[in-house]
Every structure is written in structure tokens, then in C-alpha cells.
Design brief:
34% of the residues lie in helices and 28% in strands. The chain is α+β, with helices and mostly antiparallel strands. It has three domains: 2-123, no CATH class; 130-155; 167-269, RNA polymerase II/Efflux pump adaptor protein, barrel-sandwich hybrid domain (OB fold (Dihydrolipoamide Acetyltransferase, E2P), Beta Barrel), CATH 2.40.50.100. It has a five-stranded antiparallel sheet. Strands 8-15-13-10 form a four-stranded antiparallel sheet. A four-stranded antiparallel sheet has the order 12-11-9-14, with no helix packed on it. A hairpin with a 4-residue loop joins strand 3 and strand 4 (67-74). The longest helix is centred in the middle third of the chain and has 30 residues, at 125-154. 21% of the residues are buried.
Length: 270
């Protein structure tokens, strides 16, 4: 364990020194200083921040030398930081920035000096443009959600507020029978039972968020039949065998493991 911490400390020290070298010209030319940033989790994340009164540049190394990430923004408390990849989409370099983590460090620094001197000088046009784009995307997403809600309600769906904060739409199934009555009617039906191994360990409660198929439809083995969610993950569920869907657990109902969420009747699929 001691060797692990020494290795991590050496890697962190090496990355920070290389970041300082890569951004030395930017710091000197535009008056940026290194900030003292304390990370809560540094197992695979190395970070150096350079800033002045106008701009902040956050340099992050990820996964022990595999990748480098750069974010930059106006130096205002709480201001959003934008990925350098967003800038590169608009101002394409002659050559792509590739290589190992250190190559990327120096490549991004050179890119900023070559293609983004206006930003380094404190010009906010790029950030204003990005902020406007994000605002427009949020407005479009909200309008699309409203239109979807109107359509779903018109089609008879029920809106369910899930315990995990998701908005779930439940299809109107007025003739849905109980599990017991359907099991009696189809004694050879196969139970689709979810165990906690389907999700990450420690997840004990979930909900079905969306059925991909509907009652009385034929399901093929390994076909996606539904999506389930917990407070942390979403997972697609596959049919364990071919059969007709004769019963299902409806969307938005919390269940614990193990639970039967569907009955598939193999005889009805012939």
C-alpha cells in the first residue's frame, strides 16, 4: 500500500510539473497564476488551475497518464467552465492534438497560444456564445418535453412521479389482470425474475421506467423488453426466452429483489 501511495504521489508531482512547463508561456504572457486547488479524490485525477482576474484554465489529467482535459472560462465565482474541445470545434487546428498525456498538455497549450489569444486576453465572446447555445438547448429540451407530455396525456398515459425523481409515463392498461390470475391461466408461463446481480451491488430497489413491448406481443429471446432504474443506474432488461408477454409489472412501481416483472408464455408463441 505504501508503494501505491508513493507511485501516486510521484505521478501527481510529475504531471503538475509538466503542466507548469506547458503553460509557462501562457502564464508569463497573460499574467496567470497557479491556484492552490485541493481535490477530494485524486486516485486517478490530477488537476492544476491557472487564473488571473479575467480567465481561469483548469488542466486535468485522467487515468494515470492516458488523457488530458482542459476547461476554461471567465474567472467569476460560480461561472461555468467550457471544454477546450468545444473551442476546437469552432477553431480547428491544422493538426489534431494527440499523443500521451504530456503530449496533449503541450499540444493544448500551443493551441491556445495559436488560436485563442483573444480568450487569453479576457475576451468573452466565445463564452457568451456558448452560454447562449446552452440556454437555447435547454429551452428546446423543455419545449420538446412539454410537447411529449401533451401527446402522452392525449393518448391516455398516466404521469408517475418516481421515488428517484424521474418522470415516468405509464400506459393505460384498464384490463391488466393480477399476477396470480394470469399464472393460473398460463401455468407454463416463464417468470422474468430480476435479482440484484442485474444491477450494481448494493442496489436493492428499482422501478421499470419504460416497456419496449406491450401485453400479448411476442418477445424473442435476448430482445430488450424494458428499462429499469435505481437512484444511481439505468439498465436494459433482455428476454430470457421467446414467448408471448401475458403479464407485466407496470411502470413506476418500486420493487425489491428478487421480483418477477413479467410472464412469458412460450406455448403462445408457436
Amino acid at each position: 500500500m505504501q508503494d501505491y501511495y508513493k507511485l501516486h504521489a510521484d505521478a501527481l508531482h510529475y504531471f503538475k510539473n509538466e503542466a507548469r512547463k506547458a503553460f509557462a508561456a501562457i502564464c508569463s504572457s497573460f499574467g496567470l497564476q497557479e491556484e492552490n486547488v485541493i481535490l477530494t479524490d485524486t486516485d486517478n485525477l490530477f488537476q492544476v488551475t491557472f487564473s488571473n482576474s479575467k480567465i481561469r484554465i483548469v488542466v486535468t489529467g485522467i487515468n494515470w497518464g492516458m488523457n488530458t482535459d482542459i476547461h476554461l472560462g471567465v474567472n467569476t465565482n460560480g461561472n461555468y467552465l467550457y471544454s477546450i474541445l468545444q473551442l476546437i470545434k469552432e477553431r480547428k487546428p491544422e493538426r489534431p492534438i494527440t499523443g500521451n498525456q504530456i503530449d496533449q498538455l503541450f499540444g493544448y497549450a500551443h493551441y491556445l497560444m495559436t488560436y485563442a489569444t483573444d480568450i487569453l486576453q479576457g475576451e468573452t465572446a466565445f463564452f457568451n456564445q456558448q452560454e447562449a447555445l446552452i440556454k437555447q438547448e435547454k429551452e428546446n429540451a423543455w419545449k420538446a418535453m412539454q410537447a411529449e407530455s401533451t401527446r402522452k396525456l392525449a393518448e391516455g398515459y398516466l404521469k408517475i412521479d418516481s421515488p428517484f425523481g424521474e418522470q415516468i409515463w405509464r400506459k393505460n392498461r384498464p384490463l391488466l389482470s393480477t399476477y396470480s390470475s394470469i399464472k393460473d391461466k398460463f401455468p407454463h408461463s416463464f417468470e422474468v425474475v430480476l435479482n440484484e446481480e442485474v444491477l450494481l451491488s448494493g442496489q436493492y430497489e428499482a422501478i421499470i421506467t419504460n416497456w419496449k413491448i406491450e401485453l400479448n406481443e411476442i418477445v424473442m429471446k435476448d430482445e430488450v423488453i424494458c428499462e429499469i432504474s435505481t437512484d444511481k443506474v439505468s439498465v436494459e432488461i433482455f428476454a430470457p426466452q421467446t414467448g408471448q408477454l401475458v403479464w407485466l409489472l407496470e411502470e413506476g412501481i418500486p420493487f425489491k429483489f428478487p421480483t418477477c416483472i413479467a410472464l412469458l408464455d412460450p406455448q403462445s408463441s408457436y
